[in-house]
């Protein structure tokens, strides 16, 4: 068809007898129309982007206490919101100092008990039992010629008591006492899964949390960041080395630095190590205690600044459900869906699980953490329950939930580094899991055995056909975790786009 035959071209064509003035007016009008049209396009694009932005992906981090949920969240913050993370980093210093001091104070307490106990003949440590130590049977004979030096060491470390209290107060902690009190009052219901109808009776032995607990993560981070900013703005003390971070009038840092040599002497003393070993204190102190104790010369200094690794190891127990809104900062992450995430980090103990239920509504994905190194451990809140068994019970309840049948489930079989260590140390799996039989006691065999078990639980319990996404992780390894998280995130977005259940 010739152009002039087209009604639209004809209608829009300028009149054949158009004067130069009329042409100028027409061209100006056309320019103006183009400008307005471009403005409208721009506004529409912005609106579209805003709409996409509103598609916030909601993800829950679930799993038993100490499974690594909060540590996974830190990995996400580090990888996806690096600017916000950099601002937050300094606020972790007090938590790390507190982690180290609590370990030292616990060891000092054990030493004091040994020093004050009537001397019994040294006995061989009994076969390892996961029910905890018994000081009476594991007492160690302290030679007379060492007693005086150890007593002095203990005395010189007493200022750390005060610092522990100060740091707790600063962080708004000390809340482990609140939890104890509420437990005593029966306020904290024990539930194996969030779907249980009724709480089961609290075990006779009281649950005594060993970690620092704070109610709101925002409050202490804001306080600590403000403190740091104020410290930086205040002139240095005369005896501070120039340019050092001891510009702070931070008495915790000063006391720690002053006690550094004594803390190191305590931790490296063979007799003290023997006390720690016999009382199985490392098991009581949590998975990061050894890391911090091995870093005393670096952490107990006036100019200490936390590294990312330190923060990943810093332990602070999550209470209730805490919401984190992450807006991905990188250029590549500006594609709308998958840019805005609301992540819910929950407290994992059996006393906290009833609180998860309201968060199951509208959630797109659940990242479930099962610490597979816990095959020989028991829950802190209920010593009758094996940790791995608890993870399976919980995983099964999530898999079979009707409410969660459309939710994407991702499983992190976490703490692989600790599992490898235990197996290398010769701990026998079949002693704790008879079903494991006489299979090889090595990481490869055990991890694939567990992976198959978790997969079976998913496929046999899910109300609808579901794919199994299981990863072996050590979330204290930020590099490896960043890679896993990137593929998890892409996977979630792809699956979500395919899913008919889009509710964003
Ligand atoms: N070695 C090692 N330590 C880990 C790993 N994952 C977590 N941790 C440590 O285990 C401790 C508990 O981790 P968290 O992330 O606080 O556990 P959580 O699941 O948030 O626990 P709750 O808040 O009590 O529910 C911390 O000291 C972590 O540094 C891991 O893969 N390997
Ligand atoms: Mg946590």
TrEMBL record:
Composition bias (Polar residues) maps to 119-129
GO terms, biological process: adenylate cyclase-modulating G protein-coupled receptor signaling pathway
Indicate which residues the UniProt annotation says bind Mg(2+): 318
Q: Does the keyword Lipid biosynthesis apply?
A: no
The UniProt regions of compositional bias labelled Basic and acidic residues, in chain numbering, are: 20-30, 216-234
Residues the entry annotates as binding GTP: 287-288, 312-318, 414-417
Please provide the record's keywords in A-Z order.
GTP-binding, Magnesium, Metal-binding, Nucleotide-binding, Transducer
Q: Which GO terms describe its molecular function?
A: G protein-coupled receptor binding; G-protein beta/gamma-subunit complex binding; GTP binding; GTPase activity; metal ion binding
Q: Which GO terms describe its cellular component?
A: cytoplasm; heterotrimeric G-protein complex
Q: Which residue ranges does UniProt annotate as crossing the membrane?
A: none
- Does the record bear Transmembrane in its keywords? no
| Disordered as annotated region, ranges | 1-30, 117-145, 216-252
Which residues, by range, are in coiled-coil regions? none
For this protein, the record's PANTHER family field holds: GTP-BINDING PROTEIN ALPHA SUBUNIT, GUANINE NUCLEOTIDE-BINDING PROTEIN SUBUNIT ALPHA HOMOLOG
- Protein name as it appears in the record: G-alpha-domain-containing protein
Organism name: Phanerochaete sordida
